[in-house]
Write a structure and sequence with these properties.
alpha/beta; eight-stranded mixed beta sheet; 21 strands; 24% helix; elongated
């Protein structure tokens, strides 16, 4: 009788636990010192038109029961502000972000498989297509164009709408209550952002004749100095130039720096070294002189394949490219110019003499740099090759040209020709396929 009675009690207990109706005992109660949210960390990703908050990591005192989470456990609000379209006064204006996934992790970062593993962090992923959560803001306006920077004080807010539980002690029940749902309480982020890929870049600066050139660079994960790697030099737009207060913005404001580290963008698995200088907008010739000096030093310090050094530009950066290619045509194997200024006849002649392949892209309705600048570049480069006796077929292989109508832009900034350019992996693959002749 005694055995039967205990068997019945155990069976009833298991049934209650399975239905989550079991009253909380000492092991299931709120764990006191582990109660509540410990920290909130924003996680950012660089998309085509710049960096935005792509997730938040909410930390608790112990491992979280992932089975009790869903996409309605948390809500997130973030800014509507976008420096390309909005005045800075719009920065505090928040909107609801769409939550796409919720799972647990052992660190404050996104998992590639988006699946739960034991951990005290809840990762709340957000819709990447939503026009919200941008991190780049206006910095300074010393000239007719403002510079921009990464916002050090993100306005992202999180609401825990439902209870969050820890892992069940004996594998039954919900586990201890770690934090009670507070649907009317918004919490600001408490930690510095985890900036995916951007945080992997290293900082350096080059000094010559009283001029300093800040830069960031990224080496392959398994960098081996006994090997050689192609080098991509990324020359940013005017607003991403160094203003004394905006380091790393040339990596975050748009896609060209980080794209070369992702197979999704390049269409290839090959490792690439990325070098992203941050010019000070003092003029193309002076900046190009400093750039090529930096490159000479960089090629000595790192395992670069000297037959595969490339440059890619955004807007103002084209002036550096044209000057650098003309000044030191021996350095470069190819170039990609997006939404840029026109080459001049002297520069075109030097580029043609070195037979450096160029791809030029431009928005037809570019409101800052007229499409005629790109058309002039195409004409001058072709004329320079004709003068050297090149056939039309040879010229087509050396001068590539693409114009984009408005429909090609996934965000309506028609000056940002890098958008549709970089969303076409074949163009990036083309650039990486160029190589200087063996000497």
């Amino acid at each position: 009788m005694r055995i039967g009675r205990w068997a019945g009690v155990v069976a009833s207990t298991l049934a209650l636990a399975a239905s989550n109706l079991l009253p909380a005992g000492p092991a299931e109660a709120n764990s006191g010192q582990n109660a509540g949210i410990r920290s909130i960390t924003p996680i950012t990703t660089v998309y085509t038109y710049g960096q935005k908050v792509s997730a938040v990591a909410v930390e608790y005192g112990e491992n979280v029961n992932s089975k009790e989470l869903d996409t309605s456990t948390f809500s997130v609000q973030d800014t509507l502000y976008n420096f390309r379209f909005n005045p800075i006064e719009d920065l505090p204006k928040l909107t609801d972000r769409k939550v796409t996934r919720t799972y647990t992790n052992e660190a404050a970062t996104i998992r590639a498989d988006h699946r739960s593993v034991p951990g005290r962090y809840v990762i709340v992923e957000l819709d990447p297509e939503q026009n919200a959560g941008w991190t780049v803001i206006t910095s300074k306006c010393p000239t007719f164009l403002c510079t921009v920077k990464v916002n050090p004080d993100l306005p992202t807010q999180v609401v825990q709408r439902k209870n969050v539980y820890g892992q069940p002690r004996l594998g039954i029940g919900r586990g201890p209550l770690l934090a009670k749902g507070s649907p009317n309480t918004s919490r600001k982020v408490t930690e510095k952002a985890v900036n995916l890929l951007v945080d992997e870049f290293r900082y350096g600066s080059y000094l010559s004749n009283g001029m300093v050139l800040p830069y960031h660079y990224h080496l392959p994960k398994n960098y081996d100095p006994a090997k050689t790697y192609p080098l991509m030099v990324v020359l940013p737009g005017h607003g991403m130039g160094w203003d004394g207060d905006n380091l790393t913005v040339q990596l975050a404001a748009d896609i060209p720096a980080t794209a070369w580290l992702r197979q999704k963008w390049t269409g290839t698995t090959q490792d690439v070294i990325v070098l992203a200088p941050q010019h000070q907008r003092v003029g193309g010739a002076a900046e190009a002189d400093l750039l090529v000096k930096l490159l000479d030093q960089f090629l000595k310090d790192f395992a670069v394949d000297r037959r595969r050094v490339y440059a890619t530009t955004v807007s103002y950066g084209s002036q550096l490219l044209w000057n650098a290619f003309a000044k030191r045509s021996d350095l470069f194997a190819g170039g990609l110019v997006t939404g840029g200024f026109a080459v001049n006849a002297e520069q075109a002649a030097a580029i043609a003499a070195a037979e450096i392949p160029i791809w030029v892209t431009h928005g037809v309705q570019d409101h800052l740099l007229n499409i005629n600048l790109a058309r002039t570049t195409r004409t001058l480069l072709r004329d320079a090759y004709i003068a050297r006796g090149k056939t039309p077929e040879q010229i087509e292989n050396l001068v590539h040209y693409t114009e984009y109508e408005d429909a090609a832009f996934s965000l309506p900034d028609y000056h940002a020709a890098y958008g549709p350019t970089y969303e076409d992996a074949s163009i990036l693959t083309w650039l990486l396929s160029q190589s200087k002749p063996q000497t």
